[in-house]
Every structure is written in C-alpha cells, then in structure tokens.
Description:
Elements: E1 2-7, H1 15-18, E2 27-28, E3 31-32, H2 33-43, E4 48-53, H3 58-65, H4 67-71, E5 73-77, E6 82-86, E7 94-99, H5 106-111, E8 123-126, H6 134-144, E9 148-153, E10 161-164, E11 170-174, E12 183-191, H7 206-216, E13 220-224, H8 235-246
Amino acid sequence: xxAVSLAGGLGTGLSEETDSKPMLPVEIGxxxxxxxxxxxxxxxxxxxxxxxxxxxxxxxxxxFANYFLHTSDVTFSLADNGVxxxxxxxxxxxxxxxxxxxxxxxxxxxxxxxxxxxxKSDFCFTYGDGDVDATALVEHxxxxxxxxxxxxxxxxxxxxxxxxxxxxxxxxxxxxxxxPNVSIKGGFFVLKHAALSFIESDSTxxxxxxxxxxxxxxxxxxxxHSGFWQPMDTLREKNILNNLWKSGDAPWKVWE
Length: 256
C-alpha cells in the first residue's frame, strides 16, 4: 500500500517559516515534518510515498536529492573533489515527488498523481496532523468496505467535525463549527480510488467539499483514535512538538 501526502500548502499560521518554505519541510527536532510522517508509516510497513508538491516544492526535491548529505557523516577530499558518505541508517522507502501546481486546492492536489499508483488498490492519505496506528487504520478500512476512512479524534479547539453513527459511519461533516465535545478529523485517511470521483476539479477542497459529499453518500467511516494528536498550524503548536521531541518523550516516535 502507498501513502500520499500533501506538501503544497502555504502554512500561513507558520508565516515565520513558511514564507520561505512549504509546510512539510518545517522542522521538528531538526528533521522535516515529512520525515516524521514517513517514519510513522514505515514502522507499519508502508514504505512507498507519493508527495504532492505545490508552493516552492523544489525545496522538498532538493532535500531528497541531498538526503545522504543531510543525514550522513561525510568526508570531503579537497585534493580531488571527492565525497565519501559514511551512511549507516538507510531508510526502506521510495518517494515520488509530483508537481501539482501552486494554487491547486487540496482535493485537486490529491487527484493529480493516480498514474503513480499501482492498479486500483486502496491507499493511505495524510497531511500530517498528529499520529495514528496505521496498521489498525488500514485493517479498519478494509473491514467496512466503504470508499473512505477518516481518523476521528477529540482534541481541544475548533476543527472539521465528524458526526458519527454508533457503528462509526460518518453521517455528516462540518468544517470548523462551534461547540464543545465533538469528534474532529485527524490528518490520516485510507481511500479507495473511487473516492477520487468526489473531487470535481483542481479547485475542489478535500475538507469542505469532498468529505462533505462522501458523508452525505454514506461512504465515509471513522477510525476512532484516542491517542496523541497535535496539529501544527501555529508557531506555538510547532514549539509544543519541538519541546516534546527534545524531552525524549515524543508520543509519535514509534520507531527505534
């Protein structure tokens, strides 16, 4: 199974950093958030990644083009212009970077790279908020047979709200309504390819249009996540994640 990640947003809440870089290269503990997402997935056996690029996506290309340089001890021979990488920690991952244009909306961005998928298999989709047991999420998705599965969690604040039936079917979806004690969407999904038919064009919003229609058509089921969840929409939230990493007690670090 492959995982698709969106990396084209402007990240206006993190303007101190994202004025000069797209969201997913913003660093937590000295590593891009995209690296953390890939590590979460690869721990659960998902090692094929498709990253949808938009705003200044070339910086993500440069990161992976120079991945060994970023992560290895290196010897430079100034006499003959030689470079030796002393690499000991290989990542078991393949990453495909797909240009989806700067002003494409989230739904349109997701619909761009199907040609890089194998056949019509289900796939994971994320924009990286929080953490999830990807193995349990995928098994839950396979068990109910609907087109889409969304992670449901319940942090403080106002986000996109999922109204759930007893069996977990999403009966309706609202983007950022007011009110306490609600389930909200986390940033981890599993989708059948047919779910892409709910994306009309490049301007379609995944959150405000596609999820709403999937719920209306009874094709969206929730995976209830009661563990750690923390967005990174503001500099304050980024600092929370950095402090957790520095403490050695980052809940999303499920790898050795």
